[in-house]
UniProtKB/TrEMBL annotation, chain A:
Its cofactor is Zn(2+). The keyword Nucleotide-binding applies. GO terms for cellular component: acetyl-CoA carboxylase complex. Its main location: cytoplasm. GO terms for molecular function: acetyl-CoA carboxylase activity; ATP binding; carboxyl- or carbamoyltransferase activity; zinc ion binding. Gene3D superfamilies: 2-enoyl-CoA Hydratase, Chain A, domain 1. The keyword Zinc-finger applies. The gene is accD. Binds 1 zinc ion per subunit. Keywords: ATP-binding, Cytoplasm, Fatty acid biosynthesis, Fatty acid metabolism, Lipid biosynthesis, Lipid metabolism, Metal-binding, Nucleotide-binding, Transferase, Zinc, Zinc-finger. It catalyses: N(6)-carboxybiotinyl-L-lysyl-[protein] + acetyl-CoA = N(6)-biotinyl-L-lysyl-[protein] + malonyl-CoA. This is Acetyl-coenzyme A carboxylase carboxyl transferase subunit beta. Zn(2+) binds at C31, C34, C50, C53.
UniProtKB/TrEMBL annotation, chain B:
PROSITE patterns: COA_CT_CTER. NCBIfam families: accA, AccA_sub, PRK05724.1. The keyword Lipid biosynthesis applies. The keyword Transport does not apply. It comes from Terribacillus saccharophilus. This is Acetyl-coenzyme A carboxylase carboxyl transferase subunit alpha. It catalyses: N(6)-carboxybiotinyl-L-lysyl-[protein] + acetyl-CoA = N(6)-biotinyl-L-lysyl-[protein] + malonyl-CoA. Acetyl-CoA carboxylase is a heterohexamer composed of biotin carboxyl carrier protein (AccB), biotin carboxylase (AccC) and two subunits each of ACCase subunit alpha (AccA) and ACCase subunit beta (AccD). Keywords: ATP-binding, Cytoplasm, Fatty acid biosynthesis, Fatty acid metabolism, Lipid biosynthesis, Lipid metabolism, Nucleotide-binding, Transferase. Pathway: Lipid metabolism; malonyl-CoA biosynthesis; malonyl-CoA from acetyl-CoA: step 1/1. Residues 38-292 form the CoA carboxyltransferase C-terminal domain. Its EC number is 2.1.3.15. Belongs to the AccA family. One of its GO terms (biological process) is fatty acid biosynthetic process.
């Protein structure tokens, strides 16, 4: 089958620090999977999905938002929350500043609302270019507030996750963001809200083990790596070589952990269908 | 042979010296009572100095002490009619988590806790207290029942973390933890969570969402092990001691950060010195907090729980 032909090349390797930085700079872009070289602009038009092998590269949050939401409908939430250095952790502030400069983002998640083919939706998009989208106080707070806003406005909530996990430099404060965001999901659920989680590469640790897994529907992009513990840690623990496709979206789908794997090009249409079905039959207005 | 921790070696040495002199006095004509009294005074002062000035790394050692009381030790001391129940109904029974029902001073409660072993054999059986998804799902099942029957839930936290293995990943470790966090935030019964040893990351938090998060004085609660943090941040697992300081994983630090609600004092020298006395201190804490929580209306209880979690975090001005 044609599908099988493509699925062979869907494994995303976790991008190295250099590979990640390849994306915002330079005129040309090389597919990290098949090695084919494209003009950046061409790749951008393809939503960073390799036209040759279908590999899904990292998609900057602003491009995802522009692609998904109807023109002019996007309104950002909580732009005034700033990350501090609560533990006084060495070089944390410098690392934040460096990534702010690199990405133009203040933190690793953008939250807000907009319409998707006319359906009003609250959302959060995590951006792994910023500190590997690890979750500290601000990330947890913004996501939690966005879910609360969806609850108050009685609109669906969609989250695109990507994260290396909890943000170590904020210690247990970052760990507790898992509890905070999950508690927000519970309140939203109690109110009958629709939550859709779309996991993108990579979604690990404290993010995977909280809101990312708590959608009414959990999806992933092709080849996205998703798990609790990282591959290296698992290999070291069990002293065993893992299969090549371990923790890929397709592996999770086969193990019953996902509702489906959705190609980025089909995402808007797919989400629109879900929103439409829930508008017709569910509590969401 | 009792496990001796690095920082308490001077105490142990002095104790042995005193014991030696006592034996000597008894067996010979020489009276060393004066000398013994002097040394005992010095021991008192030394113990005081060492145990009231524990560094984070000392507490890590204490929290990991092989003879430190475990969940089942406290259950035996504090509860009556304990019945342990098994299995998650989907896959298996995870011995790294124990769960069941009991009475606490006459009232029904549900108990859930990580369970590590004290011997190698028992540790292997209990996977060193590191749960698989079925452990978290067993916990969830019992907490759901507690909510159904209106019983308070007491959770004991004592784990290095959720087990990072292949099977755990295949069966949805992330989902199992996430679901516990979510559901625990919504159970309409009082939930008291007590960190008794190590509180490692998501695997600890999966039994740690409730109305009160308490820590024993020498327990730890952390987003990552000091060794793990050191190896990621500085590519040097040997810098664990430094990481333990920077990560703020001790009870006093976490109280200050607003992560935990209260500290349960430990007897001098650590909980493993005297289980019965330590259990009394845990008992006092449970009684105090439970009586506060039992007075609350369900809606108020849930609203306060949400407030508590939604306020945890720190932002720049």
């Amino acid at each position: 089958m044609l599908k099988d032909f493509f699925s062979k090349k869907k494994h995303a390797s976790k991008p190295s620090e250099e590979a990640k930085q390849d994306i915002p700079e330079g005129l040309m872009l090389k597919c990290s999977d098949c090695g084919k070289i494209y003009y950046r602009e061409e790749m951008r038009k393809q939503l960073y999905v390799c036209p040759n092998c279908g590999h899904h590269h990292q998609l900057p949050s602003d491009e995802r938002i522009n692609n998904l939401f109807d023109e002019g409908s996007f309104m950002e939430y909580d732009t005034d929350l700033n990350t501090g250095n609560p533990l006084g952790f060495p070089s944390y502030t410098q690392k934040l500043e460096k990534d702010q400069l690199k990405t133009g983002l203040k933190e690793a998640v953008v939250t807000g609302e907009g319409t998707i083919n006319g359906f009003r939706t609250a959302f959060a998009v995590m951006d792994s270019r910023f500190r590997m989208a690890s979750m500290g106080s601000v990330v947890g707070e913004k996501i939690s507030r966005a879910i609360e806003k969806a609850r108050e406005a009685n609109i669906p909530f969609i989250i695109f996750t990507a994260s290396g996990g909890a943000r170590m430099q904020e210690g247990a404060l970052s760990l507790m963001q898992m509890a905070k965001t999950s508690a927000a999901v519970q309140r939203f659920r109690d109110a009958g809200g629709l939550m859709i989680s779309v996991m993108t590469n990579p979604t690990y640790g404290g993010v995977s083990a909280s809101f990312a897994s708590l959608g009414d529907y959990n999806f992933a992009e092709p080849g996205a790596l998703i798990g609790f513990a990282g591959r290296r840690v698992v290999e070291e623990t069990i002293r065993e070589k893992l299969p090549e496709d371990f923790q890929t979206a397709e592996f999770l789908l086969a193990h019953g952990q996902l509702d489906d794997v959705i190609n980025r090009h089909d995402m808007k249409k797919y989400l629109t269908t879900i929103l439409d079905i829930h508008q017709a039959g569910g509590n969401v207005s | 042979m009792k496990q001796v921790l690095e920082f308490e070696k001077p105490v142990i040495a002095l104790r042995e010296k005193i014991a030696e002199l006592k034996t000597f006095t008894k067996e010979s004509d020489l009276d060393l009572t004066e000398e013994i009294v002097k040394l005992e005074t010095r021991l008192e002062k030394l113990e005081n100095d060492i145990y009231t000035n524990l560094k984070p790394w000392d507490r890590v050692q204490m929290a990991r002490h092989a003879e430190r009381p475990t969940t089942l030790d406290y259950v035996e001391q504090l509860f009556t009619d304990f019945l342990e129940f098994h299995g998650d109904r989907y896959y298996g029974d995870d011995a790294a988590i124990v769960a069941g029902i009991a009475k606490y001073k006459g009232r029904p409660v549900t108990i859930v806790g990580h369970q590590r072993g004290k011997t190698t054999k028992e540790n292997i059986r209990r996977n060193f207290g590191m749960p698989h998804p079925e452990g978290f799902r067993k916990a969830a099942r019992h907490m759901q029942q507690a909510a159904k029957f209106g019983r308070p839930i007491i959770c004991f936290i004592d784990t290095k973390g959720a087990f990072p293995g292949r099977a755990a990943e295949e069966r949805g470790q992330s989902e199992a933890i996430a679901r516990n966090l979510m559901e625990m935030s919504g159970f309409e019964v009082p939930i008291i969570c007590i960190v008794i040893g190590e509180g490692g990351s998501g695997g600890a938090l999966a039994l740690g969402v409730g109305d009160r998060l308490l820590m024993l004085e020498n327990s730890t609660f952390s987003v990552i092990s000091p060794e793990g943090a050191a190896s990621i941040l500085w590519k040097d697992g040997g810098k664990a001691k430094e990481a333990a300081e920077k990560l703020k994983i001790t009870a006093p630090d976490l109280k200050e950060l607003g992560v935990i609600d209260d500290i349960i004092p430990e007897i001098r020298g650590g909980a493993h010195r005297d289980l019965a006395s330590q259990a009394e201190l845990v008992d006092q804490a449970i009684t105090e907090h439970l009586s506060q929580l039992e007075k609350l209306d369900k809606q108020v209880l849930l609203e306060q729980r949400w407030e508590k979690y939604s306020n945890i975090g720190s932002f720049a001005k």
